[in-house]
UniProtKB/TrEMBL annotation:
Membrane spanning stretches: 36-55, 67-92, 98-116, 123-140, 152-172, 184-202, 214-234, 246-265, 271-288
Membrane topology: Multi-pass membrane protein
Coiled-coil blocks: none
Keywords: Membrane, Transmembrane, Transmembrane helix
Pfam (any one): EamA
Residues of the EamA domain: 9-137, 153-288
Primary residence: membrane
Keyword Metal-binding recorded: no
Cellular compartment(s): Membrane
One GO cellular component, as annotated: membrane
Record protein name field: Drug/metabolite transporter (DMT)-like permease
């Protein structure tokens, strides 16, 4: 393996860990700040982190129609997605949220296949099935014992967030073939921040404020900075190797969330969660292992 590919996989792995860590950190403060307010602050800080990279890359001219489409997708990818994810964290643990969210690369495959943009092979189908079984194993124990509506609501919200990521990833493709990835990501994030300002204002972010203490603000700032850095690493990795080799490392997010959730939030690490982790990781590997020989495609992730 070439050195730049090794570094790209390391960057992708770092992004997978960042996603899981951000989920745990978000759950740590989610009861002291509204879900939209947290999403607004997260990406406002992330945009500030991207500005130097965008400026260094020079000016890129977008067609007005394309720019509006990219900004609309940004609202879905960074605005609605993260708001749904943060809201879901009010109902379920970060471990289960990470497991559910890690199915978004497989949703991307299915949507792309339905739209005729990618062939869904037997290995990919088996991977989808195995991942669904893994998620069911992780959620089934709690849903069957408690049958609480809050668990079901949380699961639906997180799956809806994953679906937003999958849809936006597929619809980004025409614009990624015309423009550099970093300016597209920056404009998408800027649009999401503008969009989230409304819901955040309704939560009282700009008037009443939040219940965050000093530690809480530090956590929010770190979430924002890590999101900006993680997104730069993600885009850089996509330029160095095939997108599916990058995407598969999102399977590290539930592992990270499980370990950090148990250590920091005292969340239970049950046998069902362990089986679910194995199912998701194996399913993702099985579904993506053959794609390295397919034509390179570009996708965007959170």
């Amino acid at each position: 393996m070439k050195r730049h590919e090794t570094l790209a996989l390391a960057a992708a792995a770092a992004t997978g860990v960042q996603v899981g860590a951000a989920l745990v950190a978000s759950r740590l403060v989610i009861h002291d700040i509204g879900p939209a307010s947290l999403a607004f602050l997260r990406y406002a800080i992330a945009v500030l982190c991207l500005v130097p990279f965008v400026a260094a890359g020079g000016r890129v001219r977008f067609a007005t129609r394309d720019l509006l489409a990219v900004m609309g997708l940004g609202v879905i990818q960074f605005g609605i997605l993260i708001a749904l994810l943060n809201l879901g964290l009010q109902f379920i643990s970060s471990t289960r949220a990470a497991l559910l969210f890690s199915t978004f690369p497989l949703m991307t495959m299915i949507i792309a296949a339905l739209l005729g943009r990618e062939r869904l092979t037997g290995a990919k189908s088996a991977g989808v099935t195995l991942t669904i079984v893994g998620v069911a194993a992780a959620l089934g124990e709690r849903l069957m014992t408690n049958a609480g509506s809050s668990d079901i609501i949380g699961a639906i919200l997180v799956l809806a967030a994953a679906l937003c990521g999958a849809v936006s990833s597929v619809l980004y493709r025409p614009y990624l073939s015309r423009y550099p990835t970093l300016p597209i990501g920056a404009w998408a994030m800027i649009a999401s921040v503008v969009f989230l300002a409304g819901p955040a204002g309704m939560e009282g972010l700009f008037t009443v404020g939040t219940r965050l203490d000093q530690r809480g603000w530090i956590v929010v700032i770190l979430i924002g900075i890590s999101s900006g850095i993680g997104y730069v690493l993600w885009l850089w990795a996509l330029k160095q190797t095939t997108p599916t080799r990058v995407t598969v490392f999102l399977s590290l997010s539930p592992i990270t969330a499980s370990l950090l959730g148990a250590l920091i939030l005292d969340e239970p690490f049950t046998l069902g969660v362990l089986i679910g982790l194995a199912g998701v990781v194996c399913g993702l590997w099985l579904a993506t292992r053959v794609r390295s020989v397919e034509p390179q495609e570009r996708t965007l992730g959170a």
